[in-house]
């Protein structure tokens, strides 16, 4: 497994934006899919977005058109640009790699 480290979470008002980053120390970052999941209090962890090694993206319906996932293979970094945030986006956001690795999570709180 490769260590994944998220950053960029915080407190924002509804309608605001945040950008999450996930740095992957793996040597073959460009070779595997990466993604974001989130877990709200009292709820199960859920899929948010995924980007394949070839750059194809997938989104949960709840975030489609508001969130954008991207990756910079030269920096071994994945991003999640989150716009038009809603209180229901409040959760701990986890970075995931298709090798089976997870980050420690970063808290996103959206106030109404």
What does this structure look like?
The protein is mostly beta strands and 112 residues long. Helix content is 0%, strand content 51%. It contains no helices and eleven strands. Strands 2, 4, 5, 6, 9, 10 and 11 form a seven-stranded mixed sheet that branches. A four-stranded antiparallel sheet has the order 1-3-8-7, with no helix packed on it. Strand 9 and strand 10 (101-102) form a beta hairpin.
- What fraction of residues sit in β-strands? over 45%
Span of the ends, CA to CA: 38 Å
Number of helices: 0
* Major sheet description: 7 strands, mixed
Basic shape:
globular
**What is the number of E strands?**
11
- Using only C-alpha atoms, the radius of gyration works out to 13 Å
Order of helices and strands: EEEEEEEEEEE
In short:
The chain has 112 residues and is an all-beta fold. 0% of the residues lie in helices and 51% in strands.
List keywords for this structure.
112 residues; mainly beta; seven-stranded mixed sheet; four-stranded antiparallel sheet; 0% helix; 51% strand; globular
Give the topology.
Elements: E1 4-7, E2 10-13, E3 18-24, E4 34-39, E5 46-51, E6 57-59, E7 67-72, E8 77-82, E9 91-97, E10 101-102, E11 106-111
């Amino acid at each position: 497994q490769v260590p994944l480290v998220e950053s960029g979470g915080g407190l924002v008002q509804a309608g605001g934006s945040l950008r999450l980053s996930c740095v992957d120390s793996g040597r073959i970052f460009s070779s595997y899919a990466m993604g974001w999941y989130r877990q709200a209090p009292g709820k199960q962890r859920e899929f948010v977005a995924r980007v394949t090694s070839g750059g194809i993206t997938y989104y949960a319906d709840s975030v489609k058109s508001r969130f954008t996932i991207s990756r910079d293979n030269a920096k071994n970094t994945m991003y999640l640009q989150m716009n038009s945030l809603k209180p229901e986006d409040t959760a701990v956001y986890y970075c995931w790699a298709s090798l089976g690795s997870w980050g420690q999570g970063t808290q996103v709180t959206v106030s109404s």
